[in-house]
Amino acid sequence: MIQLIRGFKDILPGDIELWQQIEKIAVELFEDFGFKQIRIPIMERTELFKRSIGEDTDIVEKEMYTFADRKGDMITLRPEATASIVRAYIQHKMFAADPVQKLYMIGPMFRRERPQKGRYRQFYQIDAEIFGVASPLVDVQLIFLLTTLFSRLKVADARAHINSLGCPKCRPGFKTALREMLMSVSDRLCSDCIRRRDRNPLRVLDCKVPACREALVDAPSILDHLCAECKEDFAEVQQSLDRLNVPYVIDKRLVRGLDYYARTTFEIQTGSLGAQSAVAGGGRYDGLVKELGGPEMPATGFAIGFDRLAEICGLNSADLQRTPHLFVAALGAQSQAMAFEWICSLGLAGIRAEMDFSGRSLKSQMKRANRLGASHVLILGENELEQGTAILRNMQTKEQTTVGLDHVVENIKQVIFA
Ligand code: ATP
Ligand code: MG
Question: Is the backbone of residue 127 left (phi > 0), alpha (psi -120 to 50) or beta?
């Protein structure tokens, strides 16, 4: 038997209902806030991700599924959505009609990481981006959207962590201070962090190795290095989160390694996921549109890990399961033929109806109706056909009603939706 690839998974009926509900609630929320859906390809030129995510990130260094296609072009299965959405924004000159574009997408991402709970090689993200607005108020709006979504999904114990990454004016000063500090604790850092120290010191701050985290408790805070504009910007973020009653914690360790990230950065974390505590991450990336060949354009966005969200979602999955409204227990060839026409009409009328196609006994058909969780059974034998009526049995109350076979769909509808 051929099994699926390690780190990949199937999402089967029984679980999918929860995924569908989460997606429905997310889509409704985004649309209510004026976001439009965008669908981007699963694959892009490798170059796009290298340039936008950055050569010395975990993703580009070791997680991408990259291969040469038959002509030798290097292509990569998308590890995230922002790069493609920015590419689409530029390629289709979406900024020409209106620089302000609010976009969202939901779909699979691919990263070749070590599979474990909450970490897969194909996973799903819900992603939103806002182009063309420099005001920190839209960062707040994104955080507000996230916390609203999480509360609609009854996620307990989710909290927004926020930080500012400064701007190209004030960040270099912080980097220098940080690098100096890292030099003094070099003997306690992992080999990855030694390399990051020299190439991209910000990234040392989000190393997950416990010894590194300990070595960094006294690391300088970027918040002490912000220029006046960035300070004001970050203060405005906090004030408007307060006004919207969105709880948050300031987390000076929250960083993104790339130069085009600026100012507000945020994450939604939860205690209920164990080691994989981040359910969503995002922030402002004002330099990226230009970096990828577009105009100078502010932008901000987030990505939610769908799989982790499904894990901590408080909606009751049992309530979301859809069982048949009706099982037609037809006895005899003539009854079966009629039942078949009816279940087709019932389906059109929004009544989920099932039947047996193999001429089994009434007893075994009733058993199957029970197993499917049908709320009603319509019993149709030769006698009933002759009399022009059938028996409709409520499987919960065991109550039986006689329904006329003329206009049977209407009659059934009336009883079932009474
Ligand atoms: P992590 O720190 O867990 O590796 P990340 O910083 O790589 O996360 P992002 O690139 O910010 O994650 O992606 C946004 C969200 O996507 C994460 O917060 C997480 O919920 C989810 N995510 C990332 N990688 C995976 C994965 N391999 N499997 C499942 N979900 C993932
Ligand atoms: Mg990761």
Answer: beta
Q: Is the CB of 277 under 6 A from ligand 1?
A: no
Is the C-beta atom of 279 inside 6 A of ligand 1? yes
Q: CB 84: neighbour CB atoms within 10 A? A: 23
Express each pLDDT in 58-88 by its tens digit: 899 899 999 999 999 999 999 999 999 999 9
Domain 323-416 homologous superfamily, CATH: Anticodon-binding domain (3.40.50.800)
Q: Write phi, then psi, for 259 (nearest 5 degrees).
A: -70, -25
pLDDT, one tens digit per residue, over 279-297 is 999 999 999 999 999 999 9
Question: Which ligand is located closest to the Cα atom of residue 79?
Answer: 1
Which residues 6+ apart lie within 8 Å of 397 measured at CB?
none
Q: Is 303 in the pocket of ligand 1 (CB under 6 A)?
A: yes
Ligand 1 centroid vs 278 CA: distance in angstroms?
A: 7
Specify the pTM. Answer: 0.93
Which CATH homologous superfamily contains domain 16-170+226-317? Bira Bifunctional Protein; Domain 2 (3.30.930.10)
